[in-house]
Each structure stands twice: as C-alpha cells, then as structure tokens.
Amino acid sequence: MLLILQMTREIILTQDGSHTIAIPQLKATYHSTFGAVQESRHVFIKSGLTPLLETYQHIHILEVGFGSGLNALLSMSEIENTGRSIIYSAIEPFPLTMEEADALNYCRQLQKPEWQIYFQQLHSCEWEKYELITPSFTLYKTMCPLQKYSQQHTQQLVFFDAFAPAAQPELWAREVFEKLYRLLDHNGILVTYCSKGEVRRTMQAAGFIVEKLPGPPGKREMVRAKKI
C-alpha cells in the first residue's frame, strides 16, 4: 500500500477528449486511453445501470475503485429527471487530491459545466458518511480495503473498476468475487471492463453467470456477471 501511495499520478488526455489519470510506475491508467468517458458510458452505464433502471426505482451501487469519480458522475447524470434514485457506495483507498479532481475536464466534456459543483462534492464530501449530492443521488465513500468492506444493505449493481489484474492481482481473486456475490441481491449484476479468460473463470467459480459483451472502442470484449 505504501508503494502505491508513493507513485506518481499524471493527468493525460484520451482520444475522446476527456481526461484520465496515468500511473507510469504501474503502466496503468484509470480509464481507457481510447476514451475515458466513452469507455465508462459503455461499460458501466449502458451495460450496467441503464438495464436496471427498467426494473428498479431505487438502486444501490457499489463501485470498487472510485478513482476519478467519473462513473459516479455519469450515474448521477443518467438518472437526471427520471424519478429514479441511487445510493452509491464507493471504495477508494488512494483518493485524489482536490487539486487533481479540479483539473479533470469531465463536466466540460459532458457539456454540463454547471455540474462542476457536484463533481467537486463527490471528491470533497466526508468519508465514511452518507452524503446527499443531489436530491436523487447519495454517496458513501470509504477508504476501507475491499477485503474488509461490509455494508448493511445489499447491492443491485457492482461497478468493478479496479486496476487490471497485472497491476492489482489481489483484487481479482476468487475470494473477492465470492464476497461481491454475497453483497449482491438476487438478479444483481457486476460489470467490468476486463474479459480475460482467467477472470471469467474466477467469477464463475464464485457463483456468477458470466456473459461476454462487445467492449468499448479499443477493446473487443467486456464482462457482465449475474447472481442468480
């Protein structure tokens, strides 16, 4: 953990004009360099949240890897004027500084400059406490590692947005997916950008029904896993 805390973070531009954050020492980025916003929309919103909005009025989401806050921002945008609400729990042991968050251009890219105040709240609000960001979006952030995370309510949706297995192999282990399986409601789903065969087999061993879906630009496939 100390090693990751000491690593350098750099804000870089991706191919769709939106920012991501790179960690050169890990050879990793928070989002796809082919397009941060388009990847998050495709994997987490289109393939995860949007289908559930047809079934649920109120949705509990757990994000593993809050990172830049982009997935939370897009989720908040997705339910705008729909009458739906979200309680969004996010795990992030290595949060951005406010200076880093303020430098990200997501609200401008989404053509919602007025949402910058909400984006700032996503990063500046208290940890380990439920915070109302908008009337329909409540955020709970924790620095607790996923392995020690516990929650009173179950989730309908998990955004699994950890660094790739090569960078954080411990987060792609069977016991991790078994824990996430227990945290999900019946018919709950988990979505992730990673579709490696070893990852799919690990999810299946944890109990998930796993399907491959077309990936975002620059990636052939992604994964959606369901708890039956």
What do these coordinates show?
The chain is of the alpha/beta class. The chain has a single domain (39-226), classed as Vaccinia Virus protein VP39 (Rossmann fold), CATH 3.40.50.150. It is built from eight helices and eleven strands. It has helices at 2-5, 36-53, 70-78, 98-103, 106-109, 116-124, 174-183, 197-205, and strands at residues 10-13, 19-23, 28-29, 58-64, 85-91, 130-134, 137-142, 155-160, 184-192, 209-214, 221-226. The protein is globular and about 45 Å long.
Helical run tally: 8
SSE-based structural type:
alpha/beta
Instruction: Give the termini distance in whole angstroms.
Output: 35 Å
CATH topology group: Rossmann fold
The main β sheet shows up as: 8 strands, mixed
Q: What's the mean pLDDT score? A: 94
What percent of the residues sit in helical stretches (DSSP H or I)?
25-40%
* SSE topology string: HEEEHEHEHHHEEEHEHEE
CATH architecture: 3-Layer(aba) Sandwich
| CATH homology superfamily name | Vaccinia Virus protein VP39
Summarize this structure briefly.
This protein has helices spanning 2-5, 36-53, 70-78, 98-103, 106-109, 116-124, 174-183, 197-205, and strands at 10-13, 19-23, 28-29, 58-64, 85-91, 130-134, 137-142, 155-160, 184-192, 209-214, 221-226. The chain is an alpha/beta fold and 228 residues long. The model has no long low-confidence stretch (mean pLDDT 94).
